[in-house]
Amino acid sequence: MALVIGHTSNADLDVKAPGIDLLQIGGSKTWGLEGRHWFGDHLGAGLAWSQQQTGLRIGTATGEADLFDMAISRLHGTVSYRLGGHDARFRPFAEAGVGAAFLSAEDLEDESKLSWSLGAGFDRSASDRISLTLRARWVATQLDDDGADRCDPFGFCQGSMSQFQVLGGVVLRF
User: Fold this and answer.
1) What one-character-per-residue DSSP string does 74-108 give?
2) Which of 127, 122, 124 lies closest to 167 in space, CA to CA?
3) % helix, strand, coil for the chain, step of 5
4) Can you give the residue range of the structural domain that contains 78?
């Protein structure tokens, strides 16, 4: 079980209206919980949940403003492959995940979207039961509104959005 905290980057969104120069989901602090079971020394599977408190930002030639605050929660099933032997204190890994992104904001209907991720990182053992972890991952969310006639608040008139996460934390082994 890992408790992680870090930062998720901005997600630039397609600008479809004249006079709008900027439309983006802001970058912000992210935290989460991750659990993984290792099937031997190298292959593992698990669940990763993260929460990002952010907002939708709009900009014109005269200034920028936040339209509304929102949260993005993600739940992914993951597959991981790590290098190094069982007794190695430094273990690099690569991971891939797929699941859902849950977008919510006050006074707007919540939406669930398909989401996936690719990442890499390393665990550094401090003892038999505790490790430190550092990871980076690219996360994409399928918005499904690329060809929509009318855009809903979480569709943003485009097919998908991408963000980048950098997370660090503590891993507890049971």
Assistant:
1) EEEEEEEEE-S-TT-SEEEEEEEEEEEEEEE-TTS
2) 122
3) 0, 70, 30
4) 2-172
Q: Find how far residue 131's CA is from the centre of its chain.
A: 22
12 class by beta-carbon count within 10 Å (0-12 exposed, 13-18 middle, 19+ buried): middle
pLDDT digits (tens, 9 = 90+) for 155-173: 666 778 999 999 999 999 8
Residue with tokens 């990002």: 52
The model's pLDDT over 49-93, given as tens digits with 9 standing for 90+, comes to: 999 999 999 898 999 999 899 999 999 999 999 999 888 999 999
Integer distance in angstroms from the first to the last C-alpha of the chain?
Answer: 8
Cβ proximity of 142 and 118 under 8 Å: no
pTM: 0.88
Q: What is the CATH number of the domain that holds 60?
A: 2.40.160.20
Could you tell me the two tokens for 167? 């997370």
Residue 98: what residue type?
Answer: V
Give pLDDT, residue 143: 83
Q: How many domains does the chain have?
A: 1
